[in-house]
Amino acid sequence: MKQIFSFFICLLLVQFGMTQTVVKDSVQKAKEDSIKMKKLEAILTYPLINAGTFSGDVPVSNPDEIPDPALNYKLLFELVDNNKANEAKDINHGLVEICRIINLHVASGIPVKNITPIIVVHGGALHSFYTRDIYQKKYNADNPNIAIVDELIKKTGARFIACGQAMNFFDVPREEMIPQVKVSLTAQTVLSHYQLIGYKLYEIRDDK
Question: What is the pTM assigned to this prediction?
Fold first, then answer.
């Protein structure tokens, strides 16, 4: 009996030691990532839109592969996810990623006039496009996405199109959404239509 008890004590100690090691490794990695991020922040550029740190790009000297600036870059974004409730004061992470992709195109030498973004909004992302009043009531915060939407429209002519099916499923009435976002019957036909006329699809999801 004592041997069994001793065995379990040893097992617990080993597991505790492994847990401590994992915690220490996680803390160390977090510190290293923080240092790395600060170094990157110092050199990031925002050639068109500044939607926060993660919308910037790192300059690269003398790249070997350069896109043709004379082509028309038709970009189709499928924006699905919404921020967590405690991130209501932050710009939708997917919208930040869209800004980053557009910034990268501009930084690569592509004229803004040759970039045409279409942003298809469905799923939880619909909640990021409430009017100021509705957003304030639901999240007790100003809607930080509206300014970025306006800037994208002003600078690139971006179109925002919401899925009518998802609006019904997620109970997001049209009158509660900002007028900058237009409505389609379904996101699926918007996605198929624009791909058929040559748009490049980017799936903006947390798991991508």
Answer: 0.82
